[in-house]
Structure to design on (327 residues):
């Protein structure tokens, strides 16, 4: 087996109960484990001596989000900054972007810019960047990973052709 | 369809070619869309006026990494302290954690601490690593449903009440 990058993405949250509800409601996920307090043992090594965290998992049709609320140390969650962060965002495949965005907004999230069509073509799949109530950035797309890659390669080929013409 | 949270994880890196080599060698990734320069109105709407980026896709057995190097603005990758970040890490399922860690280290990454047992009745192992920019990822030898089973077995208060 090759490496499978669909185990989970971990987010740090200021309010894990609210965040667990948000991700379940916004992306039609399921709280597979509710928030539970973890400390001692390897958590001291992971996050520093005396660290105490509450952790929950929200699972989806594929992939999962692991939510962490730090009881100790307590550091404010910084707003997502795609040009300043290392981990910028994560991408989510949905069947209908406007419908999924409506659920995100109803659950307390917001879009970062308008819904766009890939490549600006009206018949192309749609996508949008969103943020959760604490500003973590995620992307909704009406494409699978392989469809996105195919689309990029097609665009590149068209650009090459245009250059040659 | 419920949402699928397995499209990609986007990383901002300081040296795109170095990061591509790292994720190919360390995790068996495959460069499926080579770096392209992106700029103009849409990129500026997303990242701010004057933004210029190189972006590429590295596919794994499931999901993909979208690697971004900003030509403008150029901001150093911040130290990746998990207790202070918003998005903390991403996690991969692999067959053999020590063998994968050896590849990670040979490719220029490092372990954040020694390989640990997942606990319970599982032979599973896990470890937190970082890439050459310090970005944190986790290797686990059990998949996500099995991880949830082990958490519930070891933490009775983590059972979800209907």
């Amino acid at each position: 087996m090759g490496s499978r990058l669909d185990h989970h993405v971990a987010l740090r949250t200021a309010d894990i109960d609210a965040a667990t509800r948000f991700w379940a409601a916004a992306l039609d996920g399921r709280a597979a484990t509710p928030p539970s307090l973890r400390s001692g043992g390897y958590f001291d090594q992971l996050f520093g001596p005396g660290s105490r965290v509450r952790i929950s998992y929200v699972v989806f049709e594929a992939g999962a989000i692991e939510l962490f609320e730090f009881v100790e140390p307590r550091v404010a969650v910084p707003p997502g900054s795609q040009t300043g962060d290392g981990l910028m965002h994560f991408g989510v495949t949905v069947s209908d972007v406007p419908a999924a965005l409506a659920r995100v907004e109803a659950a307390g999230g917001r879009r970062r810019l308008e819904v766009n069509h890939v490549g600006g073509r009206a018949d192309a799949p749609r996508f949008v960047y969103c943020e959760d109530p604490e500003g973590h950035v995620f992307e909704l797309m009406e494409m699978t990973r392989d469809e996105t890659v195919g689309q990029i390669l097609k665009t590149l080929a068209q650009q090459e052709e245009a250059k040659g013409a | 369809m419920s949402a699928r949270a397995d499209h990609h994880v986007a990383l901002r890196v300081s040296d795109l070619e170095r990061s591509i080599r790292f994720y190919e060698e360390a995790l068996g990734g495959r460069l499926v869309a080579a770096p392209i320069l992106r700029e103009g109105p849409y990129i500026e709407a997303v990242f701010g006026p004057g933004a210029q980026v190189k972006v590429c896709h590295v596919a794994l057995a499931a999901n993909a990494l979208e690697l971004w190097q900003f030509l403008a603005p150029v901001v150093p990758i911040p130290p990746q302290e998990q207790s202070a970040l918003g998005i903390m890490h991403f996690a991969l399922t692999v067959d053999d954690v020590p063998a994968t860690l050896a590849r990670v280290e040979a490719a220029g990454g490092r372990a954040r601490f020694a390989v640990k047992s997942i606990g319970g009745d599982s032979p599973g192992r896990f470890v937190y690593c970082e890439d050459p920019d310090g970005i944190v990822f986790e290797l686990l030898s059990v998949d996500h449903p099995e991880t949830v089973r082990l958490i519930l077995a070891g933490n009775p208060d983590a059972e979800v009440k209907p």
In short: The two ends of chain A are 43 Å apart (CA to CA).
